[in-house]
Amino acid sequence: MAHIRFGLKNLRDVLNTVGGRSVSKRFLAQDAELKRTALYDFHLAEGAKMVPFAGWEMPVKYKGGITEEHLHVRQQVGIFDVSHMLQTRVEGKDRKEFMEKMVVTDIQALQDNQGTLTVFTNDQGGILDDLIINNTDKDYLYVVSNAGCADADLAHMKATEASFKKSGGDVKLSVIENALLAVQGPQMVSVLQPGVDFDLKNLPFMTTTEGKVFGVDGCRITRCGYTGEDGVEISVPQSGAEKLLASLLGSSQASVKLIGLGARDSLRLEAGLCLYGNDIDATTSPVEANLTWLVSKTRRQKLDFPGAEIIVDQIKKKPSKRRVGFVSSGAPIRGHAKIFSEDGSELIGETTSGCPSPSLKVNVSMGYVKTPFAKNGTKVKIEVRKKMIEGEVSKMPFVPSKYFILK
Amino acid sequence: MAASFARRAVFPTYRCLNGLTRYRQNVCHARYLSLSKNLQASQWFSKDHEWVTIDGQKGTVGISMYAQEKLGEIVYVELPEIGTKLDTEDVAGCLESVKAASDIVNPVPGTVTEVNGKLSDQPALVNSEPMKGGWLYKMDLKAGLKTDDLMDSAAYEEYLKSCD
């Protein structure tokens, strides 16, 4: 997901806020080229408030409020239309080697139908995007990356494809024009199980399979998500998207509701997950971003990914700054707040995103601090509107994750 | 104050919020005209969706129904300190929802005399009663106050049509 940035000047701005950016009426009127997902009409019928987001017209919330939608996902099941994300099919016998030209994770080591989170890096070790690569058993990699980076990601992959082919590599890229539905929440299994012909117990976290879902052919079901809850993302042909969504919403097994981008942001924050463009970007390395676990041992040895030497050096010597979480009370912390040492004497970093946590009823945020201050429990001061708020470095996720992981 | 009374005399429709048609507003106005002296004094709206009720030299400030709907559930309210002198368009405080923080933009000049203490425990009062129990702060208004840049409720209703 791309930016949702807050901290707005006044109500008028908030009211014109779209996907975090404040835009003028004129801009809205001119911006007729926004893309719409296959579910656009469905969203309107459900009372969605639509906003421009990463070049798409997307639901930020429905009839209820963001807090209500957020808690619904934690307690029942929520469905997000994430069709704006970039879905790519990577074929060819050298497809894994091809992806490893761009990412830090061992793709060769993935089992059939296993997936992994990873990052595209640049030569300076900065993150170009975060993405999920699934090694399907159908001779292709199924790749999902952020809508906000879609153009850049595609250009990056195509440029790499061209040079890779030139040196004799066998690879073929194509964009998958499917809709994508994220079905998230503790009751997900009871809602989805009646609609599939396999046992969801056999689809653990970060694995993928093809199949029919509620009678809709040609779906790809991947056990993953952006909320911290157990969930799946279903890639579905656009022609079947409405039917699938209606079947899920009509479940008699649990209360299933559509959820907008607003709650998506607060859910991912509670889950400690990064939002590209806010918490990670081209100026932060995976090590600084506390994503060192994505850099596979084999890849550290081979030093064969963009920025490898810088990244591996940071792993050995510790980076100068690190992404951590903060818990605080009082005024909510958002992105771009200055972080100081407990006595207020030293500027030690800046927050990258934050919100009042609907689940925890405290304020949660994340940001980068100088490494000596990155330890859990470290007391800090965070500046909000010229006042110093007391905060504490906290482990993430703030709300424990409920991923379905086989023991 | 002369200006405000003049405008009130021309468009005395502030009792008739919530999207009534002009025709119905007039009917409504006629019905309540005799009561209006005993009810609230004049009420005005800013382009930033704050309202101020002016009663002599006293003013009470809040946000409109439209604004609270757009902001969503308010979870934190930051109000000015008593004694703070605020000019028009000064940032008086902040309203925060899960999604966003938005400034309270002061609609008229004056000195803060009282803040709504209930909002520290019940910030969502701004949502449930934006025009009443969810008021934000009271002020001693600056002498010679003009309301030229503010809208009465009818004008504000018109303005809202350009806001969606």
Automatic annotation (TrEMBL), chain A:
Keyword Plastid in record: no
Subcellular location(s) per record: Mitochondrion
InterPro entries, alphabetized: GcvT, GcvT/YgfZ/DmdA, GcvT/YgfZ_C, GcvT_C, GCVT_N, TrmE/GcvT-like
Domain GCVT N-terminal, residue spans: 39-298
Entry keyword Transcription: no
MF terms in GO: aminomethyltransferase activity; transaminase activity
Protein name per Swiss-Prot or TrEMBL: Aminomethyltransferase
From TrEMBL, chain B:
GO cellular component: glycine cleavage complex; mitochondrion
GO biological process, alphabetically ordered: glycine decarboxylation via glycine cleavage system; protein lipoylation
Cofactor: (R)-lipoate
Keyword Mitochondrion belongs to the record: yes
Highest taxon, organism lineage: Eukaryota
Domain Lipoyl-binding per the UniProt entry, residue ranges: 58-140
Swiss-Prot/TrEMBL keywords: Lipoyl, Mitochondrion, Transit peptide
Cofactor binding description: Binds 1 lipoyl cofactor covalently.
Pfam families xref list: GCV_H (PF01597)
InterPro entries per the UniProt record, alphabetical: 2-oxoA_DH_lipoyl-BS, Biotin_lipoyl, GCV_H, GCV_H/Fam206, GCV_H_sub, Single_hybrid_motif
HAMAP family: GcvH
Subunit structure, interactors included: The glycine cleavage system is composed of four proteins: P, T, L and H.
Functional description taken from the UniProt entry: The H protein shuttles the methylamine group of glycine from the P protein to the T protein.
Record-given protein name: Glycine cleavage system H protein
